[in-house]
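Hey, quick one: can you model this chain's 3D structure?
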Amino acid sequence: MQQSLLEMAKDLVMALIQAGALAPEDMQKELQKTHGSLLELKSKEEFGEGNGAVSENGIMANGVSGVEHVDWKKSIKKYTIECLVCGASFKQLSVRHLRNHDLDPRSYRQRFGIPRTQPLSAKETTAMRKKIVQKSRPWEKAPTYVKARKQKASNGTAAKTSRAKKAPAAAGA
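Sure thing. Here's the predicted structure for all 173 residues.
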């Protein structure tokens, strides 16, 4: 299983402490520095040399857009979706969870470059919801739909009666 960058940084700093090259009280500062360096190396590896800079908190910044460079498509799997902020897996990313990161669905999508129409849920969850909606057809229960159907039906009967009245008049002439 692949080790996270934070775990790698922790292992490196612990090795420095065990080797006596680092005092335990300097651990936190060295951990942050090592994690930042690993993030920078990872970004250079993924996006090529010099195409992005990593800030101190580990957020990739593209000079103009401010969008984090991650492949959001890989986070949406068949049965789970992975939060790109904390790495936790869910069936769907709820507003409640995103609020923990001071985000809403719109800002989450903007931050990671996810299209507005992409559901923030697992593929299977999205498919199941789609089946339910197609089966229940909620748009047919909407007041505007019902009103339009009644109006169309009444216009259809009115047109039939007017055609029926015109037909005998044309025959008699």
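One thing worth noting: Residues 5-41 form one domain.
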